[in-house]
Amino acid sequence: MNNIKSQFTKKRPLQLWLSLAAFAVLIVGLILSLQPWRTIKSVNIDSSMLTAKQVEKYVGINSKTPLWRIVGQEQFIAHQLIKKDSKVYSAKISLENNTISIKVVENVSAGFIKKQQQWYRLNRRAELKKVSQPDGSAPIYSNFKNDQSLTKAAITFSKFELSLRQNISQIIYSPTKDNSNRLKIIMVDGNTVFATLKTFGQKMVYYSGIAAQMESKGVVDLQYGAYSYAYGAK
Questions:
Q1: CB 210 within 8 A of CB 203
Q2: For the structural domain made of 42-106, what CATH number should be given?
Q3: Where in the sequence of the chain do the CATH 3.40.50.10960 domains occur?
Q4: What are 125-182's pLDDT values in tens digits?
Q5: N or C, which end of the chain has less CB nearby within 10 Å?
Q6: For residue 44, what are the β-bridge partners?
């Protein structure tokens, strides 16, 4: 009996040392994987409405942030950014080597429409939300007879660059005998654009270049080509 007890007592220190060794290996492995001495070298931010400083402040990340604070936390950081600012629709965080990239998709207001004496705001997916009145931040839609056309126009508008979105005041569904899907677009700069709903998104990107070459205010016709003429010329 004493012999068995003696063997058991001798094994206990060996098991303890093995456990300590395994724990030490785990700690060393953890330190090597996290590498707490490494920091972010650069932060790349892709955002059209928020400044780089705003985004960095919201997520608490800069060029001196320890790398271990980000590894495995990308989705959590993106969620925090969305919660911080109502202008953020979604965010994607990616980490490559010592560089973190943050892509921000803004919660674009696609415009306003009045239905049965009630104003609604459209978001980037053309979903409606009641508002008291337009705030001037996005265009007013009018004369749309069905939700499908309105949805397509609003979603297309939401994908434009900020500078172009800010230059559009009204989007009017204005069908003719020759073009049943014609849009009449009133620009903030004083011009009027005629476009076709189907190609609205593809052709409006050329507007700025065409408008810059116009000697006076007028019409930019993007229905079946791309040309302009002064008011009163036709």
A1: no
A2: 3.10.20
A3: 111-230
A4: 899 999 999 988 899 999 998 999 999 999 999 999 889 999 999 999 999 999 999 9
A5: N
A6: 101
